[in-house]
Amino acid sequence: MRIYSTSDLHVDFEPNSRWVRNLSLSDFTDDALIVAGDISDNLQQLEQTLFELQKRFSLVFFVPGNHDLWVRRKECPNSLAKFELVTNLCRQTGIEIKPQRIGSGSEAVWVVPLLSWYVQPREGKDSLFLHKPGEDPTNRMWSDQYFVTWPQKNINRWFLDRNEQEIRNLPAGQPVISFSHFLPRQELIFHKYPPVFDPELIKKYDRNPAFNFSRVAGSTLLDEQLRSIGSSLHIYGHQHRNRDRIIEGVRYISHGLGYPNEREQELTGSGPYALKLIFEPGSELHENQRKRA
Ligand SMILES: [Fe+2]
User: Fold this and answer.
1) Burial level of 45, CB count in 10 A (0-12/13-18/19+)?
2) Using one digit for the tens of pLDDT, what is the confidence trace for 245-280?
3) Residues with Cβ–ion distance below 5 A, ligand 1
4) How far is the centre of ligand 1, averaged over its atoms, from the C-alpha of 16 (Å)?
């Protein structure tokens, strides 16, 4: 079984929903697909998209992203209730939201969904925050401020604790591919690291100079968690800036579809968007695996 990845399908945009419908009905029937969050805040569209993907893949893995947990239609009292609604939908329809072993013998690999949320700078040291000159610290352009509410504090910790219950019994010695919607490391936010905030480049390329994504990017505790299970390949989404990097023995891949206008501007990569093949039987994962074994 081969494993492909994608994220940030945002099917509320017609070109994105068309892209999903145009995926081959015959090429991937023996394969698995990881969807690292952000399908739609509209439950009907979310369900329909998962159904379309299930028609095409043997297994579909999913974690909710921030957009999936927006409450815009009074369908839930808060985003935690929406999370329960979305995960119940997944359970009822056979979408994989728990660690799952794929393949057998020496070719087996564990695929491990990791729930998470971002930590803002005022909320904890595990924030991925880095000051950006000229930023608006209120982040009022960030829609989550209007569509996401939590009934409790430290929601990232709550999600990571939930993961802990799922991962504590993972057997040692087998390759692990993990995935989350949010980012596990600050380096991944930037094209180059450490970043250079050149006012001229910001003027030319930054579509929203007052917005500082690092405020809402992810958490370093997520990185600790994925390393605690010996993940050698971690898939993530959220930023709509696609990357493929190895940092301290772990390969990190972001390969999202993103918004149509971002594709036009080639912010997510050049050429037509296609799923990314991240694993096939017989292919090596990474050095971390040997450490784990
Ligand atoms: Fe997204």
Assistant:
1) middle
2) 999 999 999 999 999 999 998 888 888 999 999 999
3) 8, 38
4) 12
Q: What is the CATH number of domain 3-292?
A: 3.60.21
* pLDDT tens-digit map of 144-191: 999 999 999 999 999 999 999 999 989 888 899 999 999 999 999 998
Contacts by 90-94, CB closer than 8 A, 24 or more apart: 90/50, 90/62, 93/47, 93/50, 93/51, 93/54, 94/54
pLDDT, tens digit (0-9, with 9 covering 90-100), for 211-253: 999 999 999 999 999 999 999 999 999 999 999 999 999 999 9
d(CA 263, ligand 1 centre) in Å: 13
The domain segmentation of the chain, as residue ranges, is 3-292
